[in-house]
Amino acid sequence: MDMRAVELAELRAYLAARTRVRAAGRRAPGARCSGIAVDSRLVKAGDLFVAERGERVDSHEFIAEAVARGAAAVLAERAAGAGVPCLIVPDTRMLVGPLAAFFLGDPSARLRVIGVTGTNGKTTTAYCLWRILSAADRATAGLLGTVENILGAGRTERPATTTPGPLPVQEAFRAMVDAGAASCVMEVSSHGILQGRVAGVRFRAGILTNIQSDHLDYHKTFEAYREAKTRFFEELPPGAVAVLNGDDPSYRFVAARTRARVIEFTRRGFPGLAGAEVAGEGLVRVAFRDGDGGIAVATRAWGGHNAENICGAVACARALGVSWDAIRAGVEGFAPPPGRLEEVPAPGFRVFVDFAHTASALARMLDSLRGAARETGGRLIVVFGCGGDRDRTKRPEMGRAVCARADAVYLTSDNPRTEEPRAIIDDVLAGTAGGDADLHVEADRERAIRSALADAREGDVVVIAGKGHEDYQIIGTRKIRFDDREVARRVLRERGRAPVPV
Questions:
Q1: Contacts of 93 (CB under 8 A, 6+ apart)
Q2: Helix axes 359-375, 304-319, angle to 10 degrees
Q3: Rounded Cα–Cα distance for residues 83 and 29 (Å)
């Protein structure tokens, strides 16, 4: 992607307005940089190479390689005999985003950018708001998230992480602007906040879905995790909007720390909308009304947790001045994203694939589906596991949440990575004592899915949880093809129970 050429003197002045900066290395009056790179292997002639102290790699060690590939200058945290001009700053990581925006013409300033953060519900909330803003703009809005990145009409990319790195983020914004987009909704992870991936993004609004315990392998404590989420709202400018879940225990903590205008929402609605109501069992129906009008829409989303997600999206849209007509069109066109209570058709019983991989997400999702199973006189059957090399503290809590709600549980592997699958399962089993569920253990995920589907009877609801849209499984250091949806369809077809072709 083309970037504008910047004279080194202009670049230094830009940095000096934001941090301490000093010059080092060879003097080169009139030197110019025509791009920016953070990976020495991707440096092009004329680039500014930014050396970062990462959590695993310190790219200061690759400055010589970057210069050999044609870097015109280096931004670093310590002086290096680079043979080219070098600018020294205290922290390079937090400057990559602003610098990328500087080189690309500050594309997020030309978009209405909304960030969605929280433990659970980010993807569904983002998709719903994306639908609404696309209807309001009469053009495909941008979307950056866990399932896919939408950069314009007909242009999608598969993301490597929930929140891309700061350079890809700015390049995505530029692509959206070039494609004619007026808005962008992006999921913002706690890792992305702390690692500066959204630094330099001009957010117009932020949505907080909830803060529950997660990622403690990275953050170590819940308090540190909550601080990371809160930091996003602390950095919103005074003219922005902070749309916060009033039912979440962290609501007051976050609301007190932001300069943005706070809008509270709950699954029952939000202030200023007289008569708002949300029916959360089964398919969600929403009804909102204020002095300017309202909507009453039956959605294609399941469960009370999705009622909450839709409320957050609608509250944000109204705070941004979106019309009820556009909101109606967006909500009517909204379907849960791939792998979020995605149904796999089956005759006589229902099969869902869901991404829930925390205790709170499993509890909320299963509470809704338990009611659906009871309505048909059936059982709730759950297949799930926990990821390896990740937060171990949540494993027994996940086991407790599932076994307290399901009638039958097939405990299996998720992405074991470099951990022994049976050791992960043992961690989960520590939380299952006292539950009434019929518990089965099968480390092989496909066999567990086969057993659960063979067990299903008329009226039952089967949930395959944890991986959602993922089409792979990580075993050791290998990533192999594995898609819960494909496996379920194949098993049903083999048994002659699939009503539709794959």
A1: 52, 53, 54, 195, 196
A2: 120
A3: 14
Q: Compute mean pLDDT per 10 residues along the chain, 502 residues long, and list them.
A: 91 97 88 96 98 91 96 94 92 97 98 98 98 98 97 91 93 97 98 95 98 84 95 98 96 98 88 62 82 90 87 96 97 94 95 96 93 93 98 96 98 98 98 92 99 97 98 97 98 76 42
Decide the pairing of beta strands 380-384 and 461-465. Answer: parallel
Q: Residue 107 phi/psi, 5° resolution? A: -65, -30
492, 344 contact by CB (below 8 A): yes
**Structure tokens given for 393:** 């503290």
Look at strands 85-88 and 22-25 and give their pairing: antiparallel
Give the helix/strand (H/E) hosting 66: helix 63-68
Helix boundaries (H) for 111-263: 122-137, 166-178, 190-194, 216-219, 222-234, 251-255
Q: pLDDT at position 56, please?
A: 86
Angstrom distance (rounded) from CA 500 to CA 231: 47
DSSP string, 242-276: EEEETTSTTHHHHHTT--SEEEEEBTTB-TT-TT-
- In terms of DSSP bridges, do strands 478-481 and 472-475 run parallel, antiparallel, or are they unpaired? antiparallel
Nearest-angstrom CA–CA distance, 49 and 47 = 6
**DSSP conformational letter for 51:** P
CB-CB contact of 331 with 131 (8 Å): yes
299's enclosing H/E stretch is strand 293-302
pLDDT for the residue 81: 78
pLDDT of residue 501: 44
Q: Please report the pLDDT score of residue 279 as a whole number.
A: 60
Burial class (CB in 10 A: 0-12, 13-18, 19+), 216: middle
- Taking alpha carbons only, the member of 26, 33, 28 closest to residue 7 is 33
Return the DSSP state at 107.
Answer: G
Task: Return the pLDDT at 498.
Answer: 54
**Sequence-distant contacts of 131-134: CB under 8 A, at least 24 apart:** 131/330, 131/331, 131/333, 131/334, 132/313, 132/314, 132/317, 132/322, 132/326, 132/327, 132/329, 132/330, 132/331, 132/334, 133/182, 133/183, 133/185, 133/317, 133/322, 133/326, 133/330, 134/183, 134/330
| Span 357-405, pLDDT tens digits | 999 999 999 998 998 899 899 999 999 999 999 999 999 999 999 999 9
- In order of their start, the domains of the chain are 6-103 (3.40.1390.10), 106-333 (3.40.1190.10), 342-494 (3.90.190.20)
- Give the pair of three-digit tokens for residue 382: 């759950």
Q: What is the pLDDT of residue 277?
A: 61
206 with 236: CB under 8 angstroms? yes
pLDDT value of position 278: 63
**pTM over 0.90, yes/no:** yes
Residue type, 131: R
